[in-house]
Amino acid sequence: MNAIDLYNLGTECMQRGDTSAAENYFTMALAQDPQLAEAHANLAWLLETLQRATDAEHHYREAMALQPDALPIALNLAALLRTTQRLTEAHALYRTTLARHPDAPEVWSSLGVAEADLGHDARAAQCFRTALTLAPDFRAARYNLACLLLGQQRWEQGWHHFEARQTPAALAEHFQFPRWEGEDLSGKWLLIGVEGGYGDLLQFCRYASLLKARGAARVTLLCHPPLKRLLQTLHGVDEVLDWNDAIPRRGPDYWTLPMSLPRLCQPDPTPLAAAIPYLSADATALQHWQQRLPGGKPRIGIAWQGNPLHANDANRSLPTADYLAPLALAGTFQFVNLQKPADNETTVFPFTDGVDPMPEVEDFADTAAVLATLDLVICVDSAIAHLAGALGIPCWVMLPAIQPDWRWPSGQDTTPWYPGTHRLFRQRSPGDWHEVVQALCRELMTLDTERSPQ
């Protein structure tokens, strides 16, 4: 069997998810023909998915040496360099690639992301706009530009471009009634679909009240099942359905998406601050946790990881909870675990006298009841941060240096989405959570001092 045949077999195995066989075939192909650039490139991509970054980089570079004008190989290698936080090298490679492919919109968009990584927002915006000049329908560039503009609180432009995010195709195919684009809602029934993760819906569900103010007779909210009980406390919603319920194909006059509502209703979130809190904990569950959790000390809830499927989770989540152990020395506090373990995993809470209520937590209504007993939440950018905001609970959010989300405005330590409750603690160097934790410790010591008898 020749090298090409082995390469083709490897590609087939890779496409059906048999990574071990694919690696073997690619390796055998390269043993026969070390100059087969395609085998180096595919093996590199495979190794990257297996989180073997060093080996992947080697094969990407071998492929590039053999095919220096191959655009996908250069883009994949640059993306790997970004993933491993070698931002300057990634930026340089994008610039080199741009010199070879000056009319490639995907290179301009990727270079824009690299510029943003390095804090060059004006250059990043120009790169995204150049990409859109070359390809006006290039969704990635438009979405990247939207995130940049929203992070700068340039709401009107930002929400306009934000429509380039991927609309859930299943919704558009299911609903046999039109999408709402700002028409008169007097006496109408409007259904708000579901998109994104838990945090997205917790953040944007507040816009339902504006639909009622516009005269909507009935507002239905579709949500993820774990959010259903909690979202039934939302003002302005007549019914809450999850995707396990019977979702109407006909009946409503319009449907819309929660993250389209700012564009259609109120681009600047500042006026919505008066409506915080806009969700509430169940009174019975709240009483239960007030009795269960130890008293006598200020309670601080801790969450150190977000959804592992999030595109930026490697940067936004702490590798382990151990990074937060110094908080225990910052004062006399009762630490409460808010981290729900993944299936078949066990949470390791770094506070020896901490409390872990999460084994009893079934959904976000339960989590809300726990949060409502706390004096403060400390967490990464995750659904917990948005839940605390929706409940009006003070929250300190730890943010990464690489790709901090647009919801936490550039260069600020507060956010207009949750003014008065949230403070932002940012990495100054990629991956350096120790400095962030030290800043948290200093603030906790100040709190401890302020409450101590003089």
- What's the overall geometry? globular
Radius of gyration, whole Å: 25 Å
Just name the CATH architecture of the largest domain.
3-Layer(aba) Sandwich
CATH C-level category of the largest domain: Alpha Beta
Spatial ordering of strands, largest sheet? 6-5-7-8-9
Question: Please, what is the oligomeric state?
Answer: single chain
The number of helical segments is 20
Helix content: 40-55%
Low-confidence stretches: none
Task: Determine the CATH superfamily of the largest domain.
Answer: Glycogen Phosphorylase B
Major β-sheet annotation: 5 strands, parallel
- Looking at the structure, the CATH topology of the largest domain is Rossmann fold
Arithmetic mean pLDDT: 94
Backbone structural class: alpha/beta
Order of helices and strands: HHHHHHHHHHHEHHEHEEHHEHEHEHEEH
Q: Proportion of β residues? A: 5-15%
How many domains is the backbone divided into? 3
N-to-C span: 83 Å
Q: How would you characterize this protein structure?
A:
The chain is an alpha/beta fold and 454 residues long. It has three domains: 3-162, Alpha Horseshoe (Serine Threonine Protein Phosphatase 5, Tetratricopeptide repeat), CATH 1.25.40.10; 169-267, 3-Layer(aba) Sandwich (Rossmann fold), CATH 3.40.50; 283-451, Glycogen Phosphorylase B (Rossmann fold), CATH 3.40.50. It contains 20 helices and nine strands. The chain has helices at 3-15, 19-32, 37-49, 53-66, 71-83, 87-100, 105-117, 121-134, 139-151, 155-162, 169-174, 198-204, 208-213, 228-231, 261-264, 283-292, 313-316, 364-371, 383-391, 433-451, and strands spanning 189-192, 218-223, 239-242, 254-256, 299-303, 334-337, 376-380, 395-399, 422-426. The strands form two sheets. The protein has a five-stranded parallel sheet. Helix 1 (3-15) packs antiparallel against helix 2, helix 7 packs antiparallel against helix 8 and helix 8 (121-134) runs antiparallel to helix 9 (139-151). The radius of gyration is 25 Å and the shape is globular. The chain starts with a helix and ends with a helix. The model has no long low-confidence stretch (mean pLDDT 94).
